[in-house]
Specification:
10 strands, mainly beta, two-stranded antiparallel sheet
Length: 156
């Protein structure tokens, strides 16, 4: 089964790369060296969303008409992804068989009219499942539990 080499959306090309271990150095040269065809997660479906949230704590104070609020700990949102599953693809098999014990690096590549950008983030594969319809392609859905912020690298 041949993979789709990147996605074209409204004039932009997007790709996702999977690195088997956490990359400690996230500079342009290191990231570009890891973002190679052998590491690409082919046949992606849907969109990638990198978000974060902050916990707001409401304080109950006796005698106050309104409860004041305080900022608590923040967290990085999980990233949910789906691709057409290919059991002969090494990256798909690595994701499907992952036990969630190894921290990985993911590289999201965007090439649009503004330029080329890498968004690099680390995380653990928290869940994965294969949907097997009676007629059609199997999908591999997986969730990356992010362990830190994304690093944005603009390619000169």
């Amino acid at each position: 089964m041949a993979g789709v080499q990147g996605r074209v959306n409204a004039g932009s090309i997007t790709k996702l790369y999977f690195v088997a271990t956490k990359m400690e150095t996230k500079d342009q040269a290191t990231v570009a060296a890891a973002a190679i065809e052998a590491n690409e997660v082919i046949d992606l479906r849907g969109e990638l969303s990198l978000g974060a949230s902050t916990n707001i704590i409401e304080l109950d104070i006796f005698g106050e008409a309104f409860a004041p609020k305080m900022v608590g700990a923040g967290s990085f949102d999980d990233v949910e992804m789906t691709c057409v599953f290919n059991s002969e693809n090494a990256i798909h098999e690595a994701i499907r068989s992952d036990k969630g014990r190894v921290e990985h690096t993911f590289i999201y590549y965007l090439d649009d009219e503004v330029g080329q950008t890498y968004y690099v983030f680390d995380g653990y594969i928290g869940s994965r499942s294969i949907q097997m319809p009676y007629d059609g392609a199997m999908d591999l859905s997986f969730t990356v539990v992010r362990s830190g912020p994304e690093v944005k690298i603009d390619v000169a």
